[in-house]
Predict the 3D structure of the following.
Amino acid sequence: MKERQEFDFCVVGVGSAGFAAACTARDMGKSVAVVDGSGVLAGLCILRGCMPSKTLLRSAEIAHVVKEAPKLGVIPRGADYDVRFIIQRKRRIIADFADYRVKRIESFPLFRGSARFTGDRELSVDGQTITARKFLIATGSVINEPTLPGLAEAGYLDSDAILELETLPRSVVVLGGGATACELAQYLARLGVKTTMLQRSARIMSFEDADIADALQGSLQEDGIELHTGVTLRRAEKTAAGKRIVAELGGREAVFDAEEIFFALGRRPNVDGFDFEATGVQYDRTGVQVDEYLQTSNPDIYAAGDVTGMWELVHVAVYGGQLGAHNAFTMLRKPAQFDLQMARAVFTDPQVAIAGLTEGQCLERGIEYEKAWFPFDDLGKAITAELTQGFIKMLAARDGRIIGVGIVGAEAGDLIHEAIALIYFKASVRDVLEMPHLHPTLAEIITYPAEELNERLKHQKHVLVTP
Ligand SMILES: Cc1cc2nc3c(=O)[nH]c(=O)nc-3n(C[C@H](O)[C@H](O)[C@H](O)COP(=O)(O)OP(=O)(O)OC[C@H]3O[C@@H](n4cnc5c(N)ncnc54)[C@H](O)[C@@H]3O)c2cc1C
């Protein structure tokens, strides 16, 4: 590579957001350079996020199916877990995903090393200088540093470490109650680890509506997870047998002992060491600040993905990367549609998935809505398959338009896509009833709340009734 190179577009950090941005800009006919650190290429999702965690969760799910099999008259002749095999299978799968992604990344001029802005439109990467008309920052996130006194000294596992554990501890205390905490706590519990979860808020998944969070809490408890909410962590200690968390619970001191501690108290945007000051890009520990076009305070620099401090979701990162690259090179800039993009899932079993608005968001924004609810234990397919945990909840505006759907249940992460499409196309509850839904399927569960809402709302003047 030459000492100084010029491009139309330079992407800093080539994970999900950066890769999507680079591809979009190249498709627009721009010359594109990509810059990434000296570590392994391919991004968080492939290396230490979505894909490895879901590979492990599948093993835990199979372990659970084997345990539950007698309920369906299938008696397994003993089952054991081979955690080394589970981890090796994960490594094989992830290596294939990563190889494929790296080949595609290498189709761009690639600069490896620590990136540092040295001017408004100038970046230095280990002695090489890159200038570009436009930049996109997509440096992702890092695991939060633990602030709990004694934790660093006692030692702990984070999600990166859990995904690599070839020997599981006998017991673990999980600090946190977000998506990663819930998924990996269930993974551990289903492979026989005595698991205790400690959550500061009144419930896990504290952003979600209470009925959704309560249902997930119930199923984690059915897996044998001991769950405590409303916990104030005080300190961590090393003990002769392992580790200890000292906390306050219900006004009293409580002590939780385990062989290991899983620190799952989130990630923060990766903003340190880039010398953003040289560019006028405003940022703090909550992320690089962007407007609705994903433009930073420097008009030539955009940002997308976890580094912006938005929802840590791959589809949000990809969408942001594509939108940022598009907006960087067009007069017809598009604003981000985040209400729809914030569709999300937790890949526990049962899964949790949300599309559109929650009841909490409707109340906050003063949006009037009607709600209907239907349980999986009343749905034919769910009963035949013994997948009866959970429910679907649908929110509709007064004119019958669907504005939000929440599902706790088997395959919720897949089922939610019909709801995403309905909300995207501004469909009404009546539309759901006019669309065919095959029987018997889990997908037909969406027709039941739609039917109830249609019945209730058809007396309102705007609601569509059968011609
Ligand atoms: C355990 C776990 C499970 C998850 N599961 C899901 C899930 O099921 N579904 C979902 O939607 N999301 C999930 N996520 C979140 C998801 O992985 C992230 O939101 C997403 O990968 C972020 O993409 P990104 O492009 O913003 O960042 P990244 O993919 O992290 O990319 C950032 C890039 O910047 C590079 N970089 C960092 N520092 C520098 C530097 N100094 N110079 C140059 N380059 C640098 C990095 O090497 C990296 O390639 C999960 C996360 C975790 C941790």
Observations:
- Confidence is low (pLDDT under 50) at residues 462-467.
